[in-house]
Amino acid sequence: MKNTVAIILAAGEGTRFNSVTPKVLHKVLGKMIIESVAEIVDGFDKKIIVVGHKSELVKKSISVQNVVFVEQIKQLGSGDAVKQTEKILKNFTGDLVVLSGDVPLLKKKTVGKLVSVHKKEKAVATVLTCETENPSHYGRIVRNSDGTVKAIVEAKDASDEIKKIKEINSGIYVFSSKELFSALHNIKNDNSKGEYYLTDVMSILSRQDKKIIAYKTDDFREIMGINNRYELALAENYMREKVLENLMHSGVTVVNPDTVYVEETVEIEKDVTIMPSTIIKGRTKIRSGCVIGPFSYVDSCTVGKNVEIRASFVYGAEIAEDVQIGPFSHIRKETKIDKKARIGNFSEIKKSTIGENTKVSHLSYIGDSILGKNINIGAGTITCNYDGKNKHKTEIGDGSFVGSNTNLVAPVKIGKGVLIAAGSTITHNVPDNKLAIARQRQVIKKRQG
User: Fold this and answer.
1) Which residues contact 96 (CB under 8 A, 6 or more apart)?
2) Cα–Cα distance between 300 and 265 in angstroms, integer?
3) Catalytic machinery residues
4) Which parts of 16-104 fold into alpha helices (H)?
5) DSSP class of residue 156?
6) 264 CB burial (10 A radius; 0-12, 13-18, 19+)
């Protein structure tokens, strides 16, 4: 947005969170609050984030591009926070959008409309407002007879009469930069909190007969600031419902949506079914025809067509088409599972490649391994990949059959077409098309006593 700079206020401690983590770093649907807010003003000439409480942690945690940080050493109120940006904006003569760092539900189009109205009306200040039956702790909008804004009165300083006003301040504004900084030098801290309120700028500009207007949104949730963990949960649930609604409109079936959690970053094709009590996170991509769940957790995976994942944990994996996983499987990072493979109940796969049509059906651990095609892994098979200091690789060739309760002590290489007898502990390489037996012969003796 040309000739427009965004200032995001993120210096507060957020004491009502009762947390060692700054409020703006808490996550809503997998994304930090401050990152969601910063995305709203993408495309502006510049984004300035005012930090204060645990500023180094906040700056280190934010991955948003093209951001300038300004520090408010002492938290003396929102007016003082904005004033800290004056030095780096001394040559800027455009408009400033000021918004709180705790409004992740705010829509980008609403901010665009706010700026558009401000410019069209040639106002020096424009505030985003909303009407609500329960104004609670929000500042009230006091208007002139012609509908322009006369003042914004903070709830703690409002009279009983002003508290009856239902139009509230969102804490989101557009200002003429020149007029804003001029007024900021005249605000005082003679209020119940002893802070410099940004809202006092409105009264100062009004007394100077400057044009101040309001743009009203109909959706209170959009301007809801997150001040505690209860409000965090409300915001996340609202966003979760919107994500699921969009998915269902795009052709995804969600069974019992109240129990399903899907983050905004997830991509799901049509004709996928998500069963109850399922969590899908990160940069996961799921192709059509899949059934995910019930009781499944999928994080940052690519999932091919017609895959079934039942009651399992899967993260950081690449899964090809027609794969079956679960129930109660654990698929860990850097695992690749080729098409038509099967990972069954109580099996764990870690940093391994599982070939086409290979079966690891139950009660097995496959770690740091490469398994070829058409292999059968019997129940209770373990790749012993860790010697106490280092991890070692196991390789199994195409068409091999590993009997139940087998230990493969890595590093070890099993050739193609090998048959390993049940109960064996394999410590040496096995050539192609051989039978390996590594166990004591059964002995039957007369029972004594």
Assistant:
1) 4, 5, 6, 7, 89, 174, 175, 176, 177, 180
2) 9
3) 362
4) 33-40, 55-61, 78-83
5) G
6) middle
Q: State whether residue 94 is helix, strand or coil.
A: coil
What's the longest Cα–Cα distance across the chain? 110
Report the chain's terminal Cα–Cα distance, integer Å: 93
Which amino acid is present at 166? K
- Token pair listed for 192: 């119940």
| pLDDT of 1 over the 80 cut | no
CATH topology of domain 4-223: Spore Coat Polysaccharide Biosynthesis Protein SpsA; Chain A (3.90.550)
Element of type H or E holding 111: helix 108-121
Instruction: For residue 338, name the pLDDT band (cuts at 50, 70, 90).
Output: very high
Rounded to an integer, what distance in angstroms lies between the CA atom of residue 73 and that of residue 53? 8
Fold of 229-436: UDP N-Acetylglucosamine Acyltransferase; domain 1 (2.160.10)
Say whether pLDDT at 65 is over 90. Answer: no
With beta carbons less than 8 A apart as the criterion, state whether 48 and 8 touch: yes
How open is the CA angle 23-39-109, to the nearest 5 degrees? 115
Identify which of 44, 58, 66 has the alpha carbon closest to the alpha carbon of residue 14.
58
CB 28 within 8 A of CB 38: no
Q: 409 - beta bridge partners?
A: 384
Q: Express each pLDDT in 295-316 by its tens digit.
A: 999 999 999 999 999 999 999 9
- What are the phi and psi torsion angles at 408 (to 5°)? -110, 105
Domain definitions of the chain by residue range: 4-223, 229-436
Q: What is the pLDDT of residues 241-297, one digit of tens each?
A: 999 999 999 999 999 999 999 999 999 999 999 999 999 999 999 999 999 999 999
- Which amino acid is residue 65, in one-letter code? Q
**How confident is the model over 153-170, as pLDDT tens digits?**
988 889 999 999 999 999
- The whole-angstrom separation of Cα 425 and Cα 414 is 13
140-143 vs 336-337, strand pairing mode: unpaired
Query: In this predicted model, what pLDDT tens digit does every residue of 163-196 receive, in sequence order?
Result: 999 999 999 999 999 999 999 999 999 888 889 9
Q: CA-to-CA distance for 177 and 325, rounded, in angstroms?
A: 58
**H or E element: which one contains 292?**
strand 291-292
